Amino acid sequence: MSPPPIITGHEGAGVVEAVGDEVTGIAVGDHVVLSFESCGACAMCAAGRPASCETFLMRNLLGRNVDFTTGVTDADGNEVASRWFGQSSFATYAIATARNTVVVDKALPWRRSGRSAAASSPAPARCWWRSTCSRAPASPSSARAPSAWPVMAAVVAGAETIVAVDLHDHRLELARELGATHTVRGDVANVVGEIHDITGGGAHHTVDTTGVPSVMQAALGALRLGGSCGYVGVQQGDLVLDALALVGKTVVGVLEGNADPQVLIPRLIELWQQGRFPFDRLIETFPLSRIDEAEQASLRGDVVKPVLVPGA
Fold it and tell me: Which residues contact 312 (CB under 8 A, 6 or more apart)?
């Protein structure tokens, strides 16, 4: 990850004010959401898997161009990293590429018009959808153990039993409203046992969104034989497994939901319009000036997805 000084901000949304001479399919005035960046030329991009782009790290997590240059300097002429996730959308203007810019319907209500408005876009829902649905297609008897975002994806995928695990009662209540058939407090004495009881022998698929090693272990332990577990959260420490932990089970580390945003984001919008993927219920907006408050609300678990709105 790039050290300061850096302009961060990702999953942005706004209105296009200018396009390059060689850009096609995007015009001034278009409403867009911004996703992760990819090269479009490597083997993984050619295979429709831009989240596994060979230059993903350089393009998204260093805050600079692939040649390590940046087009921004501070008042003293010192370089400032300005390509975080190919956008650095906390800036007044965000510069993106055609590959990580997705044009959306201007009639959709969650965008904020303006120079670089970080609206309630479907981009953050992308990774949960792909992690939950595409890595582990649901059968009618499938059971899952995710939190709020993947609950919605599990519902659309047709899972019959959906178990949400969380430390906050209000988030568990929201999960039930979104379609979870069962909820479990994450601090009960035996989370794995609770899930095994609910599912009649273990979940077919689980998704960990925390990156906490003990929770990752529980997500794996909650599986039945033949089940699969997706790890989405950034890992917070070493994951130590016993000798039999992986026998008959599959574990997948998920990066950006293994999604192609140009395909998936329009699909998520379509589902939202149908009332089948209400990701807007998870969002609370904050003016950019209250970024510290938004961060603390997220860390406390008060907010599922804080969204910052410049100029609000």
Answer: 112, 285, 286, 287, 288
